[in-house]
Amino acid sequence: MITIYGFSQRRLADSADSGLTMNNLKEALVIPHEVEPLLLPNPQLSILELLKYWLPLIATTTSKTQEFFNNNTPMKKSAQAIVLIPSPSQATVIALQNQLLEATTKGIRSIWCPHVPHLKNETYPLWIVTYWASVDVIRPIRDAWQAAEHYLAEQKQDWKVKKNAEGVEVVNRIFAALSTLRWSDKLRGFMSNAGRDLDKLSYYASNKWLTDEHANQMLDLLRRDLDRRVLLEIFVGSSWFFAKLRQAFEAKEMYRTAKTYRQYQNLALDIQAGLTDKVSFLVNLDQNHWVAVVVDIQLHKILYGDPLGMTIPRLVKETLDWWLNYHSFDTMGFTYDQLPITLQKDSFSCGLLSWNALVAHLIDGAELLAADAVSEGRLQVLLDIIYELDTTVRKFDHDQWTY
Q: N or C: which end of the chain has fewer CB within 10 A?
């Protein structure tokens, strides 16, 4: 169950040739099986259970890596002693990993803790570096969900005061899900471009700007909704759909033959065959602002929605004009029009509101979010994603979560 973070088999072998034997070196760097459960959270724990788990603090003092190395055998090996030691900074841990194998060839057998003054005379096993590296992997996951927990609690309290029963119910359902989902689970059941790190879902329970991965998660939800309504003639592009099309615009001579642009060629064939009558996608302008676009083949319209209320920029218009002209769709006389969209009142809701504009336009009965309902809208998306997770795959990934 245990992998040695940062130590390849080749590096281990090279060090073993001139120092400890291969088996002894592995044993020295691996957290002992009987100690590991006392130091690190079980990957089977739920997200909420992880939040209760103690992880060591990070030391504020810094020390040179060479000061950590000692030639004597370790004095302290108990989990009770090691778990209370503050971790060095992540940069220090990485540096220790990079130098530790070479240090073993020079007789290093234990680790000092110069970053904790009152422990400077104690020596610990080499595997304490593996433990610190493991904690550095787990801590950001714990911290992300911890911040989400605080956000959810605050929203619930606020909505209770405002008598928003629906919002409170959404929060309750999310907490129920977080008590079941394992912190080590992956984002299964979504397209690969939607990411694989489950902790990234914590962004929805925050005021953070939503990234490409989040945009693709939401677009995946939209595709599923359309498929379940048998609206198969509507194409929903990924977050990079326009960026790739823009690359084709800037390298026009490659568009016809390069495999990377084949999906656009095939999409054009589907349009010509009557299999697709709407092309919808999000555009990430300048890597900091999301807008929505719908190309309506039947109405000969290109609808553009910007949560800031801006008109379509030249780079988007010229790219779409070129693509439509290349495939002779411009003969239909396309015109540009406004896609109804909620205007944002903050600096972070453009992704949600642009996606919501697509949903409201493409699905009968769907409505635009109110500008003051963004928080509830984000949490509803989080809940929808959780419900769509492929939880039938519960096999533990030993390669991913071994320390």
A: N
